[in-house]
Design a protein that fits this description.
This protein has 348 residues and is α/β, with parallel strands linked by helices. The protein contains 13 helices and 13 strands. Helix content is 34%, strand content 14%. Helix 5 (147-156) packs antiparallel against helix 6 and helix 6 (160-183) runs parallel beside helix 11.
Length: 348
């Protein structure tokens, strides 16, 4: 019996547990032995054409790296800035946030593999999915953690060159954020309030992954009130927001444009510097949010957006537009028109 052994060496990343994929293939057996990112040994098909993901981060990364292999969304993308072939993929749900997926729905789509991001869920997923391999992908807890995940996915799905392009853009964005942050003395940093909820009196405080972009881009989250647990947001009072008096307000959902109207017209909110200066911004969110929801590689373009909103003198909007076009082409496989870009940035 003759075996061909191919060692695919991955560039080491910052995540613990990232390992190489070793493929052992017999000419009459179309399966391979791999090690996933949590050190589990699995046998998978040599040809992977259909992929489902149990969570939002894994799903977005798979779409970015190999869109033609994704056969269903965990949740429906916002808006229209995805090619029609991908917009029509079925929505299968998943296990993320407060969502609970349906195993039968996944199995009915006959995926070659299923990707799961949480180590603690792997055994249950594998038991429920039976012979369909469930591959553990470390997605980390921060926007800084995606290099190894992109690397691994690129090798797993047979598109290492695509993954390398995404990594190059991603690392350039992180370097850009570092350079901006290093230029801003702490006593000159722009203060930011992240307004969520129907009345804008919910927020994610300092230390939350949902507001990581503020710190990463050299801003200061005014809500230094202790991190919340689970998926909830902290409740704050109008008096507390008035006391913070932020330089900028970021609104947590594009669908909450009505919240911006409320903030800009309500007499209480008009006492704030951010409102008086007109610096109240709704995060772009098509097909996925640039700032939060979910916290995933969709936030990479949010680095440039957040810097532009915090420090427009250091990064003009024209530069943001250039980066947005590049990001959508590389990561979302979509070329933005001038009109789409203008609407996306709220200038339409």
């Amino acid at each position: 019996m003759i075996f061909t052994v191919l060692a695919l060496v991955l560039v080491s990343g910052s995540l613990a547990g990232c390992s190489s994929i070793a493929t052992t293939e017999e000419s009459t057996l179309a399966t391979s032995n791999i090690t996933d990112m949590y050190g589990r040994s699995l046998e998978i098909p040599v040809e992977i054409d259909r992929v489902l993901c149990s969570g939002s981060i894994e799903m977005i990364m798979t779409y970015m790296v190999a869109p033609d292999k994704l056969c269903g969304w965990c949740f429906e993308p916002s808006g229209t800035l995805i090619a029609p072939d991908y917009m029509t993929l079925p929505v299968v749900g998943g296990w993320f946030g407060k969502q609970s997926g349906n195993y039968e729905t996944f199995i009915a789509l006959e995926p070659d593999i299923i990707i799961e991001g949480r180590e603690e869920a792997l055994n249950e997923r594998q038991e429920k999915f039976g012979v369909i391999p469930v591959i553990g992908l470390q997605t980390g807890t921060s926007l800084l953690d995606y290099r190894s995940s992109f690397d691994y996915l690129g090798e797993l799905l047979g598109v290492p060159d695509t993954a390398a392009e995404l990594i190059a853009f991603y690392e350039e964005a992180l370097d850009f954020a570092d350079s901006i942050r290093e230029q801003i003395p702490e006593n000159e940093r722009v203060t930011v309030y992240y307004a969520e909820g129907n009345e804008g009196l919910n927020t994610d405080p300092v230390g939350s992954a949902h507001t990581e972009l503020i710190d990463l881009c050299g801003g200061e989250n005014v809500a230094d009130i202790g991190a919340t647990q689970g998926y909830g947001m902290a409740e704050v009072s109008m008096e507390q927001v008035l006391m913070w008096d932020p330089d900028i307000i970021i609104i947590g959902r594009a669908s909450q444009a009505s919240l911006r109207d409320l903030i800009m017209t309500d007499t209480r909110w008009q006492e704030l510097k951010a409102v008086r200066d007109g610096k109240v911004y709704v995060r772009p969110e098509d097909p996925f949010s640039w700032f939060d929801g979910p916290t995933a590689p969709n936030q990479i373009i949010g680095i440039y957006w957040t810097v532009q909103k915090l420090y427009p003198d250091r990064f003009p909007e024209q530069k943001l537009k250039e980066k947005a076009r590049e990001f959508y082409h590389l990561f979302y496989h979509y070329d933005l028109s001038d009109e789409e870009l203008s609407l996306l940035l709220g200038n339409g």
